[in-house]
Design a protein that fits this description.
By secondary structure, the protein is of the alpha/beta class. The protein has helices spanning 27-38, 57-67, 82-87, 89-109, 147-167, 193-207, 227-240, 257-268, 292-297, 305-319, and strands spanning 19-22, 44-45, 71-74, 114-118, 171-176, 178-180, 211-215, 221-226, 247-249, 254-256, 273-277, 286-287. Bound molecules: guanosine-5'-diphosphate-beta-L-fucopyranose (GFB). This is GDP-mannose 3,5-epimerase.
Length: 322
């Protein structure tokens, strides 16, 4: 049980191995599918929510019994931005606990060779040391706006660890920082800041509005990673990592929400002004991850924020109904 893959295992040895990507229509899952297909993997097992409800234990078990995938990448989750997390705490804790418990347990029971569980940087304490090392987990209280989601994700990490310790099940966890990219959720209230602002600036530009409202004070710092970089890291970890500890996956670069807003405004081409609504929560003041463990294994992000924003806005224009 080393910190990295010491044996001769190669995730790339058999491109026809059956891989279940749970959550393949979401921001993260769709990027992982694009990545696997671009690498020549041919046997992806995908199920829409309507085809397989991952919160239903017996359905998940029946799916694993029938399909018997070799690998599982668990990118299915109930996710949202600060407002959604704060408004639907019961859904964030219960749906995530159910999905991950069902999938991790069935994966073990039906002979999956390796599983990768994805969490979030919100698992760390509100006032964690910056940049946040993996060892900061469970050392102090969480940020209240997303503690329900965080508790579920911490339980997922712990479940992977417990199954490795007791059953020697090769389950690993990756904790991405704030993500963005194609197939994001652009809902005006429930989405994360980046897609929310992109949509608001776009609609303001199209409607000729003079100002756009941005939540909070603009002072919180956030680290953003393009989802294609995350997908690259996921494949890298499937191949190279088999440690007990979860691994941070970040870009190493942070911006204030004010800087982000200015950047999105520029990319979209909105020329009016920003109005700050300080009645909305800021959330945690800063969450820059220390991703040096993953870097030490040989992985680096490639996509700069500005380039990623241009790419995401292009996708938005081509795919989202105006
Ligand atoms: O992206 P966001 O919702 O996630 O908010 P968190 C980030 C920051 O952007 C906060 C500000 O300081 C918000 O106040 N913000 C400004 C806005 N305008 C907007 C807007 O229109 N929409 C949104 N959503 N924010 C989430 C967690 O926290 O991070 C999740 O709630 C998850 O659980 C995710 O972990 C990665 O970074 O604050």
């Amino acid at each position: 049980m080393g910190d990295s893959n010491s044996g001769s295992f190669s995730f790339f040895a058999d491109k026809s191995a059956k891989i279940f990507v749970a959550g393949h229509r979401g921001l993260v899952g769709s990027a992982i599918v694009r990545k696997l297909l671009s690498l020549g993997f041919t046997n992806l097992v995908l199920r829409t929510h309507a085809e397989l409800d991952l919160t239903r234990q017996s359905d998940v078990e029946a799916f694993f019994a029938t399909e018997k995938p070799s690998y599982v990448i668990l990118a299915a989750a109930k996710v949202g931005g600060i407002h959604a997390n704060n408004t639907y705490p019961a859904e964030f804790i219960s749906i995530n606990l159910q999905i991950q418990t069902n999938v991790i347990d069935s994966a073990f029971r039906y002979g999956v060779k390796k599983l990768l569980f994805l969490g979030s940087s919100c698992i760390y304490p509100k006032f964690a040391p910056q940049p946040i090392p993996e060892s900061a987990l469970l050392t102090a209280p969480l940020e209240p706006t997303n503690e329900w989601y965080a508790i579920a994700k911490i339980a997922g990490i712990k479940m992977c660890q417990a199954y490795r310790i007791q059953y020697n099940f090769d389950a690993i966890s990756g904790m991405p920082t704030n993500l963005y990219g194609p197939n994001d959720n652009f809902h005006p209230e429930n989405s994360h800041v980046l897609p929310a602002l992109m949509r608001r600036f776009h609609e303001a530009k199209v409607n000729g509005a003079k100002e756009v409202v941005v939540w909070g004070t603009g002072s919180p710092l956030r680290e953003f990673l393009h989802v294609d970089d995350l997908a690259d890291a996921v494949v890298f970890m499937m191949d190279k990592y088999e440690g007990l500890e979860h691994l941070n996956v970040g870009s190493g670069k942070e911006v204030t929400i004010k800087e982000l807003a200015e950047l999105v405004k520029e990319v979209v081409g909105f020329e009016g002004r920003l109005v700050w609504d300080s009645s909305k929560p800021d959330g945690t003041p800063r969450k820059l991850m220390d991703s040096s463990k993953l870097a030490g294994l040989g992985w680096q992000p490639k996509i700069q924020l500005k380039d990623g924003l241009v790419d995401t806005y292009k996708w938005y224009l081509e795919n989202v109904k105006q």
